[in-house]
Amino acid sequence: MTIAFTAMPAETAAHLWNGGADAYGRPPETTVSDGPGHPCRHCLRNIGAGEEMFILAYRPFPKLQPYAETGPIFLHRQPCERYRATEILPPILSSPDYIVRGYGHDDRIVYGSGAVTPTEKIASRAGELLARDEIAYVHVRSARNNCYQCRIDKGDEAAFADAGLAI
Predict the structure, then answer these.
(1) What are the residues whose beta carbons fall under 8 Å from the beta carbon of 19, sequence distance 6 or more?
(2) Residue 126 CA: distances (Å) to CA of 36, 53, 117, 131
(3) For 90-143, how does the pLDDT look when each residue is reduced to its tens digit (9 = 90+)?
(4) Domain span at residue 104?
(5) What whole-number distance in Å separates Cα of residue 66 and Cα of residue 64?
(6) How many CB atoms lie under 10 A from the CB of residue 164?
C-alpha cells in the first residue's frame, strides 16, 4: 500500500496568512523562532531561527465532536510551499518517536490503534493501520506533548485529504 504524509491544507494556511482566525476564533500570535523545535504544519519543515512564525489553535478535523482534538501548532508567518510527498518522512519528524494513531470514517479515535512508534517505523505502522477497514486515516502526534504533526492517508485517497478540514 502506498501512503502519503498530508500537511495542513493550503486553503487553511492561506486563510491564516490573510488575517483569518484560528480554531478558537482568535488571530494567530506572531513571534520569532529561536531555532529548531518549531515545526511548520504546512511545509512540514522546521522554522529557522530568526524567522517569523504564527502560533495558533488548530483542529485537524472537519467538524466539532468529542474526539476533535484542538491544540497549538506553528506555521511560517510568510507563505511557504505545502509539503507533498509519498512515503517520504517529512523533515519535521526528527524526534526519536511519535504517537501514531488511527481514526475511523467518523473522525473518531479507533481504540487500540495508538502506539508510541519509533520514527523509522512510522511509515510501516501507518501502512498496517490503514490496511484495516475501520481506519480511514492516521495522525502523527508528539510522543511527549500529543501535539498534532501531520496526517497520513492511503496514497490513493490523499487527494481527498485536502477537503473539509477545519482550522
Answers:
(1) 27
(2) 26, 29, 10, 9
(3) 999 999 999 999 999 999 999 999 999 999 999 999 999 999 999 999 999 999
(4) 1-167
(5) 7
(6) 11
Collapsing DSSP to helix, strand or coil, 52 comes out as strand
The count of structural domains within the chain is 1
Q: Please report the pLDDT score of residue 164 as a whole number.
A: 44
Q: Alpha-carbon distance 113 to 130, whole Å? A: 10
**Model pTM score:** 0.91
Task: Give the angle subtended at the CA of 136 by the CAs of 119 and 158, to the nearest 5°.
Answer: 75
Partners of 86 in the β-ladder = 4
Please give the C-alpha separations between residue 77 and each of 15, 18, 51, 70, 84, in angstroms, as whole numbers: 12, 10, 8, 20, 20
Alpha-carbon distance of 59 to 47, in angstroms, equals 20
